[in-house]
Amino acid sequence: MTTGTAAIGIVAHLDGSGSTTFLLTIPALLPLYRALGISRYILITIVIVALAASVMNMVPWAGPLGRAGAVIAQEPSDIWLRLLPIQGVAVVLVLVVAAGLGLQRRRRIAARGAATADVEASQAQQDEERREEGYSYRTGTACTVANVAVVLVALVILLAGLLPPAPTFLIATTLALLINFPDSHSQSKVLRRHAPNALSMAGIIIAAAMFLGVLNETGMLEQIALSLVSVLPAAVGPYLHVIVRLLGVPLNLLTSTDAYYFSVLPIVQETAASFGVSGMATALALIIGNVIGTFVSPFSPALWLALGLAGGANMGRYIKLAVPIAWAFSAALVLAAFAFSMLG
User: Fold this and answer.
1) d(Cα 292, Cα 209) in Å, to the nearest integer?
2) Please, where are the H alpha helices in 138-278?
3) What distance in Å separates the CA atoms of residue 54 and residue 326, rounded to the nearest whole number?
4) Interval 256-289: pLDDT, tens
5) CA 202 to chain centroid
C-alpha cells in the first residue's frame, strides 16, 4: 500500500504543483489508510516529504529550478538534465523508504494483534453515515468505471496544462456529483457536508500566506538565511555549497523557498566561486538540499492544504515524523551526487 502511494504521488506531481498533487492523492487514499489501520501521517509523509512530490519538484517547470536558473543565468531545462541521474536515484529511494514505512507499520499492527485490514467494515460504516444523513448514491461497476475515467481525464488535463486547476476541479466535481448521486437533494447534502472543510482550508492557506508575506516583506526571512550562512568559518569556503546543501532540510524549517534561492544561493555561489566552484555545481548542491525539504516547511501553504485534507492532521506531529526521514534522504542523495561528480 505504501509503495503504491509513493508511485501514485510521483505520477500525480508531474505537473510540478504541490496543491494539485495533494488534492488528487490524499482524499482518494485516506479512506484506504484508515481501513488498513495505517496512520494518516505516513500517508502525507510518503506523498509529500522527499518522497513523491519533493522528488518530482526537480522538473524544470516546477518552481525551484526556475528560481535557481534565474540566479545563475542558466535555463531550467539545462539544470534538470544535470539533475536527472539524482532524480532517478531519488525515485528508487522513494519506493524503498515507502516500503520500509509499510513494513514497520505492519509489524506494529501484528504486535497489537489487530487485523491488517477491514475495508468492508469501513465501507459499511460510510454507508450507514450516508443513510443517516438522508442521501442516496449509486454503486456498481459502471459507476466505478465512470469515476475512474473522470479522475484520469482530470489528471491528463492538469498534466497537459489544457486548463488551470480551478476550472478542471470544478468540472470534475460536477461530473462526479452527477455520476454518483441520482438527485439534486443528495447532491446538495454532499456539498453541504464537505463545504465546511473546503472553507476551513481556504482560511488556513490565506492565513499562512499572510504570515509568510509579513516575514518576507519585512526582510526577516532573508536575515535568518544570511545569519545562518555567516556563522560558518572561512576555512570551509571550498565546501560551503556542500555544507549548506546538507543543511537544506533544516533551512527549510526557517526560510521560504524564495529566501533560500534569492538570498542564500547568491551568497553561497559568490563565496564558492572564489574557490573555483562553478555556479552550476553550487546550484545543483543547493537544489538537492532544498527540494527534498520543500514540503517540510510550515511556510508552504500547500503543506497546510495537505494536512487539512488528511483530516486536520497536526503540523507538529507531521514535522516530527517527516524531518528525520527527509534529512536522511537528503544525505543519501548528496552521496549519490558525489558519486556522479556533480558537486565539484
Assistant:
1) 21
2) 141-160, 165-180, 184-217, 220-230, 240-246, 248-254, 257-259, 265-273
3) 10
4) 777 777 777 777 777 777 777 788 888 888 888 7
5) 18
